[in-house]
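[Solved] Which block belongs to which protein?

Original post:
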Amino acid sequence: MFEGSYVAIVTPFKDGKIDFENLKKLIEFHIKNGINGIVPCGTTGESVTLSYEEHEQVIDFAVQTVAGRIKVIAGTGSNSTTETLEMTAFAKKAGADGALLVAPYYNKPTQKGLYLHFKKVADEVAIPIMLYNIMSRTAVNIEPETVAKLHTDCKNIVAIKEASGSLEQMTKIQMLCPKIDMLSGDDALTLPLMSVGGKGVVSVVANIIPKEVSDMVSAYLKGDIKKAKEIHFKIFDLTKAMFIETNPIPVKTAMALLGLCSDELRLPMCSMEYRNKEKLIKAMNDFGLKVK
């Protein structure tokens, strides 16, 4: 159901408010460059600093702007099951193609708690669900056995964004539930993940190079491994530069340098350190994105 290249799209701000004019331009930019779908209100979209009203506005705006041309997977996860239910129900009502549910953060649920959390949302909201496993942000890992049980018990849990950084874990998930759509949550591991059965990526670097990411994933899915490897090596250093500081600081800085949107962030996210910005600019110039 969810295969290909998806962009974890930023939320552009202007003077402290959401810049919907630029958000529209960004969505059109991605559609033009072959992205298969957008993921608004994820980590890269600074979802945790959006008010509930803003969160709903961004999801609704994304769905209306896309108008069925590509898929929209709305980030609706929270560390509260009640809040997750409410946001996921809104995403369904708005017409999103799916919901991205991050593992509850800070409160560190057990594997049983994770299972009950995701199952409750899946049971109560009839929308395709993509689990999101990113222990570096949530402090808890969704173990492969938990993923497999959820995939088996809940027909609408159809995908997982895997950002554990562990190919061993990704391989185990693929072995336990080979029919799940597993997408990379780490740009640098997209190609390795696809080699063990992954279906694509929810990408950060695609915010600035959507065509290259889309071409790499598409090439691999079509069996052109040589072309996919060439693109993987070409974008690797730029991809790593997106994580010189906490995401989305580098990618928003890069987008501002390219004139795509403002580099405005919401606290506690802050502007990039000068020495790191110099490293980012070098990586962009080395890739061929000419900035000063």
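(Second protein starts here: sequence line, then its structure tokens.)
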Amino acid sequence: MAYWKRAQTTLAAILSAALTATLFTTPTHAKELAIWDQLQGTNPKGYVLLMRHALAPGVGDPENFNVNDCSTQRNLNDEGRQGAREIGQWLQRREVKILRVESSRWCRAKETAQLLNIGKVRTNKNLDSLFQQSDLLNHPQTANIKKRIQSHRNTRGLLVFVGHFVNFQAVAGVSLDSGEGVLIKATPSGEFKVMGYSPKP
């Protein structure tokens, strides 16, 4: 009887740890998540969330890629879809005022943005993947997104961009995992300051 009692106690502890150890309890950027405590329930000024699309196995896109046909693209798998939903729920619990949600026209980015369920999703061709492009830092799409972020500096409400690894690396110099986001603000001098990160699934 004592053995079973100890076993039940151990099992209860394991289950309790499993329940508390959610997707977001051990993020790579633990300190950087603290910014969300400050933003909880606010209508923040100048903040932009750059989020990489959720998990879509593979690299790049098939040779027959067509932006208007999801069947020709690399898409989210079930894990990616679930991850996008859970990140969206995490953002919803922060109760931060969302000004606008925009995504690349690529299906994996659009679906990620839609599954976040934090606002109407508008597509923006400047967020389209630059995977096969050269000179990303000086690409017109990169310049256009930078201008949007700079122009948002004195605007209230969180601006959310959902796109691709190479694009956001060119824009903000960050490397994001699938589904991860970086929270940035433009300084008066036009530079970008990393304020924190959103969880990664």
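Accepted answer:
You had them paired correctly. Confirming on the second one: The longest helix spans residues 2-20.
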